[in-house]
Amino acid sequence: MNATGPYNVGEAARLSNVSAKMVRHYESLGLLPTVTRTDSGYRQYTDKEVHTLRFIRRARDLGFSMAEIAELLALWQNRRRPSASVKRIATEHVAALDAKMAEMAAMRKTLQHLVHCCHGDDRPDCPILDELAGERPAH
């Protein structure tokens, strides 16, 4: 194997820090172009595909959806792209993360209140279960 591949799916996965299953999944979604295969049917990846897999991995680590990643990949591969398009996707993602964080903070506050109200003893009364069952208000 030389410095530019070809790599089998396991090697490409290792080099990009993505599981072999996810490499095949990204290919099936069209995030990776269909790669060449050996006569015996094994996929062969080059440094270009490994670089693309690293891009996908970093985007997933930042929480981008598959649809967003597809859009970002298309922009990344288009050298004539306007950076405003990339910034729009990232800005929308930040707003979605902010909304999710606010939602999680509200869930945490409610759960903290319920934990505070629960005696946690041998009695069967439990405001946590009552709230989950819709039998009493959380506040």
UniProtKB/TrEMBL annotation:
Domain spans labelled HTH merR-type: 6-75
Principal location class: cytoplasm
Pfam families: MerR (PF00376), MerR-DNA-bind (PF09278)
InterPro entries: CueR (IPR011789), DNA-bd_dom_put_sf (IPR009061), MerR-type_HTH_dom (IPR000551), MerR_fam (IPR047057), Tscrpt_reg_MerR_DNA-bd (IPR015358)
Matches recorded under PROSITE patterns: HTH_MERR_1, HTH_MERR_2
Keywords from the named record: Cytoplasm, DNA-binding, Transcription, Transcription regulation
Location in or out of the cell: Cytoplasm
The name this protein goes by in its record: Cu(I)-responsive transcriptional regulator
Organism: Caenimonas terrae
Gene of this entry: cueR
